[in-house]
Amino acid sequence: xxxxxxxxxxxxxxxxxxxxxxxxxxxxxxxxxxxxxxxxxxxxxxxxxxxxxxxxxxxxxxxxxxxxxxxxxxxxxxxxxxxxxxxxxxxxxxxxxxxxxxxxxxxxxxxxxxxxxxxxxxxxxxxxxxxxxxxxxxxxxxxxxxxxxxxxxxxxxxxxxxxxxxxxxxxxxxxxxxxxxxxxxxxxxxxxxxxxxxxxxxxxxxxxxxxxxxxxxxxxxxxxxxxxxxxxxxxxxxxxxxxxxx
Length: 246
Hints:
The chain is mainly beta. It has one helix and 14 strands.
């Protein structure tokens, strides 16, 4: 398997936020930001993939606030406006256009992903570590169940919804959340005597084993789906069209 190597993953994978914006000065007040999730570029023209549930509906976005992406350009974090968003709720997919003329992008594969395939996720969780704020993470695991969604052996932390899921150097899916599985491991019964009343009763204690699985949506389920908002193209055709040579 080819090894994934990115010069700086932050040029491809980035956080989405909504911020208070100064329309007159075209300014951004980053200290008043609300973190939404992770996105990644799939075309050289600034088109990116995110998870739909991380994007607020227009009526839910407070007045005076706008969506932005924070992309690393030439080693510097740069806030960029989001020009438009196309949301496909049934797929938990959002196609986001970042206001950049030229971007680096990841290669998307629409081939079927099998059980047992090794995967890696790259994204930005919504938590701070050692007081250093949100930091990009690379998580590795494998596919434990394949179908219209992928179940992963590694959990997806909050904030990493929308993160690219790699198999080798190709992105084969995008993260959408986490599933929790519980199994009864031990059932303990003991007699307990109430000190005040002297009444004796049985108390049952359940010990459960909890497993968290990551959930991702494979691009393979989108391979043949034509989207009206993409002028009748499939997502694969749209990506190829945007990345075509002049």
